[in-house]
Amino acid sequence: MDELYAVRPMQREDLAMVSLLDQLSFTEPWPKNTFAYELTTNYSICQVAVEQSGNVVGAIVVWLVVDEAHVATIAVHPDHRQKGIGAALLATALLIASYRGATSSLLEVRVSNLAAIKLYERFGYKTDGVRRNYYQDNQEDALLMTLPNLDRDILRNFLPPNCVSMDMMR
After folding, report:
1. In the CATH scheme, what is the code of domain 5-165?
2. Which of 5, 38, 120, 125 is flagged as catalytic?
3. pTM beyond 0.85
4. Is 120 among the catalytic positions?
5. Catalytic residue among 51, 108, 135, 140
6. Per-residue tens of pLDDT for the chain, all 170 residues
7. Which of 43, 54, 78, 145 is buried deepest, with most CB atoms within 10 A?
């Protein structure tokens, strides 16, 4: 059985692990102070997935822009992928966004990131377009994907049994 983990709001004490996770996951990680800034805004939903040991194994930042949830970043530690953590993070953040007034979601994803695209498609995201040369490191294109309806019942179904999702309304 997989280890139990919790999805909870990101805290200042998580920032070093979140930054490391970001560096392990992306060729263009966010600057270190960006996550700290996101914790101070009213429009950011910042969540982490944490093992019982306290290690951060996943993180997500979603921006709430009027009635739209924009997935700014999501990452799962390479040693913990394919365990439902990404789905739990995304479902939790989108549920929180829906409680805060979001009715839809959008995101950009590298065209080569097939695992992420598959995850988003499971949630119901559809490709609406391509942002040419979106990524600065290699000029890779990004798919623009949208989820037109944040259905709370459907989103709750993505919370796996080995995940404890906390502070849903935060």
Report:
1. 3.40.630.30
2. 120
3. yes
4. yes
5. 108
6. 356 889 999 999 999 999 999 999 988 889 879 999 999 998 999 999 999 889 999 999 999 999 999 999 999 999 999 889 999 999 999 999 999 999 999 999 999 999 999 999 999 999 999 999 888 778 889 999 999 999 999 999 988 776 666 544 33
7. 145
Q: Is 108 a catalytic residue?
A: yes
In the sheet that holds 5-9, the strands lie side by side as 126-131, 142-147, 104-110, 68-76, 56-65, 44-51, 5-9, 163-165
Domain extents for the chain? Answer: 5-165
Token pair of 62, please? Answer: 């979603």
